[in-house]
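README: folding subset

This subset contains proteins for which both the sequence and a predicted structure token string are available. Records are stored as plain text. Below is the entry for FMN-binding negative transcriptional regulator (200 residues), shown exactly as it appears on disk.
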Amino acid sequence: MHPNPQFRWEDRDALRGFVTEIGFGALFAATPDGPRVAHVPTVFLDDATLGFHVARGNGIARHLDGATALYVVQGPEAYISPDWYGMEDQVPTWNYLAVELEGQVRKMEREQLVEQIDRLSGVHEARLAPKPTWTPAKMTPGLVDKMLGAITGYTLEITAWRGTKKLGQNKPAAARNAAADALEMAGNRAMAHLMREMPL
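--- output ---
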């Protein structure tokens, strides 16, 4: 994570909310074949445990059970031109939000995998309301069980939380707001909004 303490993001509830909202990230692990990464959707199973799954054919799958892994979620990001600050002697930088979760990976039993898939789809289907909710009951009988055979479920028991919230808080408010205005004009409304509205 960024070494500047001004950019540390340590609010555990906010970190958990960010990871929940994005719902997708990169899981890194060292393997005998070298470092590997899987891009996975996740869902919190409790306050400090993530559930996820990968395809059985994914090269990382056979090395995950018992491994220490790092899960990374990235949010809005933006290049910041020094011209936008209205200050002399500035340099280009990048603003971004990111969370790293480190922990131990454990393989799930099949029943846990079914619960994890149901919870994951339930969270995201709820966001699509008023669309009628999809459930496995809409599938041809037996097909879900067959498809579950192609994936393996895991938990990540989180032992370390690290967050970076780099939104220009090391600049005067007028300079930060000027950069946010320029970003919005350039089409990056998400980062402009965060720079103006997110608690620093």
